[in-house]
Design brief:
single chain, mainly alpha, 5 helices
């Protein structure tokens, strides 16, 4: 019983392949927790349960990462892209800046003495 329970808990921590689900279902039959005619259905149910659990875990992780990024004040990819578009629009609406050359001041030494 404990061995089957341990395998069930381990299955929740990783993706449950169809082979692993069937192995777990057979272990439950061996432990007397299920009947032999239930193995295929139980394996299918375990696979479905595992997939849904993984999806819920990933959704929770994504939500937490998004929350932490927001709290840290970091810009999201969408925000950075919006700023890039805004900069491009501003740059294209302004005429190009002219390069101005600054005239060097004349030295006073030669003309001031005369």
């Amino acid at each position: 019983m404990l061995d089957a329970l341990r395998k069930f808990v381990e299955a929740g921590r990783e993706a449950l392949t169809p082979e692993k689900a069937e192995e777990l279902a057979r272990a439950l039959v061996k432990e007397g927790q299920a009947r032999r005619d239930q193995v295929a259905r139980l394996a299918r149910d375990l696979s479905t349960w595992s997939r849904r659990s993984s999806e819920r875990l990933m959704a929770a992780i994504r939500a937490e990462v998004k929350d932490q990024i927001s709290k840290a004040g970091l810009a999201t990819k969408d925000e950075v892209e919006a700023l890039k578009r805004r900069i491009r629009k501003l740059e294209s609406s302004r005429p190009p800046a002219r390069k101005t050359t600054t005239a060097k001041p004349r030295k006073k030494g030669a003309s001031a003495k005369a």
